[in-house]
Amino acid sequence: MAEAKLSGVGVSPGRASGPVVRVTDTIEEPASTPGPDDPYAESALIGPAAEKVAARLETMAAAATGDAAAILTTTAAMAADPSLVSQAEQLVTAQRIPAARAVYEAAGHFAQALSNAGGYMAERVRDVHDVRDRIIAEVVGIAPPGVPELTTPSVLVARDLAPADTAGLDPAKVLALVTEEGGPTSHTAILARSIGIPAIVAVRGALTFDAEAVVVDGDLGTVEAADPTAPVVTATAGGAADWNGTGETADGHPVKVLANVGAPTDARAAADAGAEGVGLFRTEFCYLDADDEPGVDGQRLAYAAVLEPFRGKPVIVRTLDAGADKPLAFLSPEAEPNPALGVRGVRVAFDRPGVLDRQLEAIAGATADSGADVAVMAPMVATAEEAAWFAERARAAGIARAGVMIEVPAAALNAREVLDAVDFVSVGTNDLAQYTFAADRQLGAVATLNDPWQPALLRLIGMVGDAAKATGKPAGVCGEAAADPGLARVLAGLGVTSLSMNAASVRAVGAGLAGVTLAECERAAQQALAAPNAQAARTATK
């Protein structure tokens, strides 16, 4: 008897049902033969093809907003990368292989390097494959793979979805997303939440599931066969419009509802969504395309543009989160056998304190320019000594409030001592889960371990919450876990004092908190902590 239900990791809440449309995976691998008669004329096909792909992606980015716009802009820059084009052209002329094959091999080298780097850089491998397929399709004159044109509202089922595919989805036609790969922090997860449709990732067997129609439950992470003649059911985001804009429970316990931002467009979207401030301002956008370290004045202007929409409101700026797994040319990182466990985040600053000091100077200047209430925090802090070192430098730069991110289990275990050294902490659930379970957060095969509902992860967060209560200092959550309204209530019950998320989730989380008392949040937290697994934790708190 065929299986009637599949399970995965629910990454965007809601329930929907309807007919299944399966998405083409990738283009067929191009052949190495026959070789071109004129290699130079053949190589000349690559540059214009890449330019056309980049231009299309840039057009899509201009029409998008928020997370979708940022992801498409990054993908367009990847398509226009001169090093990718140059390497492919050289393969054609040196090895006399067709242009399509050369693009395939050149992109493969880039993808392998990113995969070897791990962490954030490994998350970009799917983007490289998408760009590769689009350029090859342009070179040979075929339609690129991806989401087909939908004639009726449907549930999309795919091995994985490229950024351009997810960013261009029409929520009026897409009922839900189901993928075999991906994890809680994948583009599929982020963008599904942005457009408000249910999504489940890491669903093994999704593409071969024998069902013409399915019911998708993004809260429980289940996919069930449905009657193909039954009416389509569209998920709705209930209650989000009823939020009054103040982050608190029904009985008045404050839990700030903040936003994660990484560019001026993100900040404007967050302000428009009603976020009470910013819990995570990622500053890497200033550095990613720089061959040399950006100057203090240039950083100051860039930061002020992000801070400006939050004049008079709290903003937590994370200092540069770079290193071996997010290599920057001017840092000259050394090769490491395991970059995810290497010199990254605040560890870079131990060897290059001047980079941190100049960034802190720029942040202090941008604070004065924008009028925002700015605090700073360091990533990848493991010990109280590291926390104290960072806080001292931040205060010396004229920044009144300094904190750190809790992404390393050691920092959670010693949260009391860490909080004694700083003014606040913020839990990065994405990395904390990855390091707690020794599971790459972008690997679909271990995605269930990175589910933020895992009781072991919640117990670590509970230790941080207890330390915050004992010291009387704030403890936030700024990982993707904060965007789940159900989990937000559990986090509040664990002692978390603020939640920071993508702009699209702000109102739903705020409304969810407003509908329960602190006692109900604490009861839900205890139920989740007592559960044997993530699925049971979700069910116990429904």
Explained architecture:
The chain is α/β, with parallel strands linked by helices and 542 residues long. It folds into three domains: 5-24 and 146-236, Glucose Oxidase, domain 1 (3-Layer(bba) Sandwich); 39-140, Enzyme I, Chain A, domain 2, CATH 1.10.274.10; 256-541, Phosphoenolpyruvate-binding domains (TIM Barrel), CATH 3.20.20.60. It is 44% helix and 14% strand. It contains 22 helices and 16 strands. The protein has helices spanning 39-43, 46-63, 66-79, 82-95, 99-117, 119-122, 125-140, 163-167, 187-195, 264-273, 296-307, 346-351, 353-370, 384-396, 409-413, 415-421, 429-437, 455-471, 485-493, 506-514, 518-530, 534-540; strands at 5-7, 9-12, 15-22, 154-158, 174-179, 199-201, 213-217, 222-225, 256-261, 278-282, 314-318, 373-378, 402-406, 424-427, 475-477, 498-501. The strands form two sheets. Strands 1-8-7-3-4-5-6-2 form an eight-stranded mixed sheet, with helices on one face. An eight-stranded parallel beta barrel has the order 9-10-11-12-13-14-15-16, surrounded by seven helices. α9 links the parallel β5 (174-179) and β6 (199-201). It starts with a strand and ends with a helix. The model has no long low-confidence stretch (mean pLDDT 90). The active site is at 187 (tele-phosphohistidine intermediate), 478 (proton donor). Residues 152-221 form the PEP-utilising enzyme mobile domain. Phosphoenolpyruvate binds at residues 282, 318, 430-431, 441. This is Phosphoenolpyruvate-protein phosphotransferase. Belongs to the PEP-utilizing enzyme family.
